């Protein structure tokens, strides 16, 4: 049985409305077997048996929101190409609102193509343009989201920065200012060096490496117990001061997560993953589940626990994979993993 508090939060997922703005991409997987070494160079030859694709980057966050039963609205940029059209088809199949997905004929849709053999990734090939998206397209996206906030159509907004050229500080500043007026939660999954600090977000969710890079603090104690890690506390304090979010959630891989808030001791959420096959997309799942839980009335600690349980499910899958609402409910029943 799911504990009462979590049950209340999960019961509200279906009515939550979450917008995701960020760098969207298509993840392509070529699955096969290594049959021999190439006579042309000392590299393996992979005999491809099948090809699969799925939304990646910010699009994977959108997909996680949708598979968790909430209403997902996507905002981002694709190219006028087959990869972009494939992404639109993926959005339609997942029930993701795509009116905020704009096409720019002057740039390709970001695609990450992975070569897989025996469940292991051998190679990744990226097709992308990381130059800045034109400001007229950025302005259209900001205006669309602000209009959705003012009409009462959103409960939360997630910003996904993969440093592919879409997000700029001024975009977040305008959206966050409007969101605060209407009590709409805002979350940022950042990329170091991507954008300048934006104050007033509900939550920022970097991983450990990103947190230290953003804070410009040397990670002197990798692998230390998070409860007594002075370098981690220093990095968190600096990010809280620079960005002024309500919460700072730092994912710590096998050590779980650490939740920091102003004038409070850190809350440590230990990992619940039993098996780890692939961490691809795990951060996306954490961001989606945490923000969705907040939008559904969870306090930060409960939201972090739900997100941590969600991550334990997806890292046991191979490839970029979302979590379903049923899977989350199941793992939330298991209090003693």
Please render the helix and strand layout as text.
Blueprint: H1 4-11, E1 17-22, E2 24-37, E3 44-57, H2 58-67, E4 71-78, H3 82-94, E5 97-103, E6 110-117, E7 120-127, H4 135-150, E8 156-160, H5 169-181, E9 185-189, E10 203-204, H6 208-215, H7 230-243, E11 247-251, E12 257-260, E13 267-269, H8 282-295, H9 300-314, H10 325-333
Parallel strand pairs: 1-4, 1-8, 2-6, 4-5, 8-9, 9-10, 10-11
Antiparallel strand pairs: 2-3, 6-7, 11-12, 12-13
Helix pairs in contact: 2-8, 4-5, 6-7, 8-9, 9-10
Written description of the protein model:
- There is one protein chain.
- The chain has 337 residues and is α/β, with parallel strands linked by helices.
- It has one domain: UDP-N-acetylmuramoyl-L-alanine:D-glutamate ligase.
- The chain is 36% helix and 26% strand.
- It is built from 10 helices and 13 strands.
- The strands form 2 sheets. It has a 9-stranded mixed beta sheet with strand order 5-4-1-8-9-10-11-12-13, with helices on both faces. A 4-stranded mixed beta sheet has the order 3-2-6-7.
- Helix 5 links the parallel strand 8 (156-160) and strand 9 (185-189).
- Helix 2 (58-67) crosses helix 8 (282-295), helix 4 runs parallel beside helix 5 and helix 9 packs across helix 10.
- The longest helix is centred in the middle third of the chain and has 16 residues, at 135-150.
- The protein is globular.
- The protein starts with a helix and ends with a helix.
- The relative contact order is 0.15.
- The model has no long low-confidence stretch (mean pLDDT 92).
């Amino acid at each position: 049985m799911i504990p009462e508090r979590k049950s209340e939060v999960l019961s509200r997922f279906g009515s939550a409305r979450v917008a995701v703005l960020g760098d969207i991409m298509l993840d392509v997987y070529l699955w096969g077997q290594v049959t021999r070494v190439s006579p042309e160079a000392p590299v393996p030859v992979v005999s491809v048996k099948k090809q699969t694709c799925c939304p990646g980057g910010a699009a994977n966050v959108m997909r996680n929101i949708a598979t968790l039963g909430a209403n997902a609205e996507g905002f981002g940029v694709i190219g006028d190409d087959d990869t972009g059209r494939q992404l639109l088809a993926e959005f339609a199949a997942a029930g993701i609102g795509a009116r905020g997905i704009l096409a720019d004929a002057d740039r390709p849709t970001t695609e990450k193509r992975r070569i897989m053999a025996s469940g292991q990734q051998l190679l990744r090939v990226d097709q992308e343009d990381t130059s800045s998206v034109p400001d007229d397209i950025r302005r259209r996206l900001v205006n669309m989201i602000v209009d959705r906030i003012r009409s009462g159509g959103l409960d939360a907004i997630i910003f996904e920065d993969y440093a592919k050229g879409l997000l700029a500080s001024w975009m977040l500043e305008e959206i966050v200012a409007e969101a605060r007026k209407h009590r709409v939660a805002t979350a940022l999954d950042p990329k170091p060096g991507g954008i300048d600090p934006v104050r007033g977000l509900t939550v920022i969710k970097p991983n450990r490496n990103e947190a230290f890079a953003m804070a410009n603090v040397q990670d002197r104690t990798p692998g230390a117990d998070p409860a007594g890690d002075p370098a981690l506390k220093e990095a968190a304090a600096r990010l809280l001061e620079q960005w002024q979010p309500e919460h700072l959630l730092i994912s710590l891989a096998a050590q779980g997560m650490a939740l920091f808030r102003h004038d409070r001791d850190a809350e440590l959420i230990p990992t619940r993953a039993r098996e780890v096959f692939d961490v691809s997309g795990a951060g996306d799942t954490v961001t989606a589940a945490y923000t969705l839980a907040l939008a559904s009335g969870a306090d930060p600690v409960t939201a972090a626990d739900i997100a941590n349980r969600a991550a334990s499910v997806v890292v046991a899958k191979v490839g970029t994979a979302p979590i379903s609402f049923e899977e989350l409910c199941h793992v939330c029943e298991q209090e003693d993993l």
